[in-house]
Amino acid sequence: MHGLTSRFSFVNSEAEALLGYSVEDWLQQPDFWNKHIHPEEQRRAEEACAKVVAENGSQQFEHRMIAADGRTIWLTTSLRVVGASDDSKELVGVMVDITQRKLAEEESRAAKHAAEAANRAKSDFLANMSHEIRTPMNGILGMTDLVLDTSLDPDQYECLTMVKSSADSLLTLINDILDFSKIRVGKI
């Protein structure tokens, strides 16, 4: 590329293999870079090129380009200035295909979001279920206490005491499940 005119003076055959445009297309099409860089990346790429030229330095950035077959290719492009005077400054760039890495990152993000959603759903389910079970369990305990305060024969009293003890144990377990589900969703 010469300055910011985006005209290529040399392109190797790897660029042809990477994006599917012939070396002649790269060299002969005016403004090849601007025509084939992804529209959402155009401004950022122009700013990166201008910064490299202005600072007489180098920069690396990620961007997308549109391949000859219409696919979007992710690239890391490293640019640096060669040439001493403003009239002879040229940018030398090396592009590396990072499409597979970007796809893997996107799949990882999607899997993470799905796992988080599943975790929230599971915690919500546990909270709802423990609440739905706890309410009638409290009713059983309350009614058992009322009946235990009446006159009962020893066998009835023993049976109701066992019911109350079992209900208390079950309520403790339900409360533990509810607390666990709250911890999982960050409410405790």
Explain how this protein is built:
The structure is a single chain. This protein has a three-stranded antiparallel beta sheet, with helices on both faces. It has helices at 13-19, 23-28, 32-36, 42-55, 99-148, 154-184; strands at 58-66, 72-82, 90-97. The model has no long low-confidence stretch (mean pLDDT 84). A hairpin with a 5-residue loop joins strand 1 (58-66) and strand 2. By secondary structure, the chain is α+β, with helices and mostly antiparallel strands. The protein folds into two domains: 13-97, PAS domain (Beta-Lactamase), CATH 3.30.450; 111-184, Signal transduction histidine kinase, dimerisation/phosphotransfer (DHp) domain (Helix Hairpins, Orthogonal Bundle), CATH 1.10.287.
Stated plainly, the CATH topology of the largest domain is called: Beta-Lactamase
Q: What is the overall number of helices?
A: 6
CATH class assignment of the largest domain: Alpha Beta
> What sequence of helices (H) and strands (E) makes up the elements?
HHHHEEEHH
Instruction: State Rg.
Output: 34 Å
Whole-number tally of structural domains: 2
Oligomer: single chain
* End-to-end separation: 58 Å
